[in-house]
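Input structure tokens:
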């Protein structure tokens, strides 16, 4: 769903904000573009319908987490400006981003590896900034990431509590009556109703990367129960087997992120950023070391120093899988955004 500025206003106001067209909806409520009449700027407002209006604890939790998220300033995170309280519940005022959800961006065309890697690194970087600020996302998924018109990632809903409501296929209630995520992206500890920490977000990041580079969800099944069972017990097909042409190391990183035992996952999102940066550099190295020329010469061409980095002059054939990932990487090397 593309987000575009539209000067048409509905005539309805929330405090100093004049509401415009609806630009999104979900289990929590609806999102509108709106005009801030004080600062003369466009914003996005998410109205959170409070189905438990008497639950003061839930409202206070939302206020507290919105305040925490508002202090988070990172280019890959949608900024929170304000929180409002109205007759129908609470509303969050956010930065308005021109772009489209990552899920739609991925569906629209076959995207080269390089721009997908650039977005993945930005998402992980925003996640790292949030974790370092003490904020856990709890619902990271492609639908909660926007791709701007300039090709950068913006993560939505950092630290916002999920309001109590009817359980659906994609939502689960904790013992505190708070929606905490999307079933296909839940970590095993989240699926089992356990305590969450930043490594639970890393599992969701692994699911997201699997979807970005593999084109499918690693655990999604026909029913929510089967999906949860697979999350807790099944091992995903490695990306290296599903898509052999992907950059070397990416499949191993995703497998680590998707470990059932959180102790076996990377220690932090910052570590994931560093690993994604290293994988990105393999594309640059391919160009710098002449692998592009080897690729152009065909499958019998030798890599400089050999396939496994042997002494100069010791050549070996370019493996078909390696040719494929080089082709994918080089096709997008010039189009990846930098930040």
């Amino acid at each position: 769903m593309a987000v575009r500025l539209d000067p048409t206003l509905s005539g309805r106001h929330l405090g100093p904000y004049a509401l415009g067209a609806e630009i999104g909806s979900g289990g929590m409520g609806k999102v509108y573009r709106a005009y801030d009449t004080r600062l003369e700027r466009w914003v996005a407002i998410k109205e959170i319908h409070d189905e438990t209006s008497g639950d003061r604890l839930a409202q206070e939790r939302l206020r507290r987490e919105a305040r925490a998220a508002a202090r988070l300033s990172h280019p890959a995170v949608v900024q929170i400006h304000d929180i409002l309280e109205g007759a129908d519940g609470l509303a969050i005022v956010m930065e308005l981003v021109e772009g489209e959800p990552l899920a739609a961006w991925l569906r629209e065309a076959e995207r080269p590896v390089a721009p997908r890697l650039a977005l993945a690194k930005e998402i992980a970087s925003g996640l790292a900034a949030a974790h370092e600020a003490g904020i856990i996302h709890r619902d990271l998924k492609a639908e909660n990431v926007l791709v701007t018109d300039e090709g950068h990632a913006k993560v939505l809903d950092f630290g916002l509590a999920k309001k109590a409501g009817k359980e659906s296929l994609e939502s689960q209630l904790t013992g505190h009556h708070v929606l905490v995520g999307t079933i296909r992206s839940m970590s095993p500890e989240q699926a089992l109703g356990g305590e969450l920490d930043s490594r639970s977000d890393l599992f969701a990041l692994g699911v997201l990367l699997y979807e970005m580079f593999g084109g499918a969800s690693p655990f999604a099944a026909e029913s929510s129960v089967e999906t949860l069972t697979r999350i807790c017990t099944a091992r995903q097909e490695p990306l290296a087997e599903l898509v052999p042409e992907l950059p070397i190391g990416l499949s191993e990183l995703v497998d680590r992120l998707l470990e059932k035992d959180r102790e076996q996952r990377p220690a932090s999102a910052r570590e994931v950023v560093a690993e994604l940066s290293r994988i990105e550099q393999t594309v640059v190295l391919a160009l710098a070391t002449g692998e592009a020329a080897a690729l152009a010469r065909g499958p019998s061409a030798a890599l400089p120093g050999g396939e496994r980095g042997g002494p100069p002059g010791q050549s070996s054939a370019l493996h078909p899988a390696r040719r494929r990932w080089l082709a994918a990487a080089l096709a997008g090397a010039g189009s990846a955004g930098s930040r």
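Confidence is low (pLDDT under 50) at residues 1-6, 162-179, 292-319, 329-339. Strands lie at 13-14, 17-26, 29-36, 41-49, 80-86, 89-95, 99-101, 145-148, 153-155.
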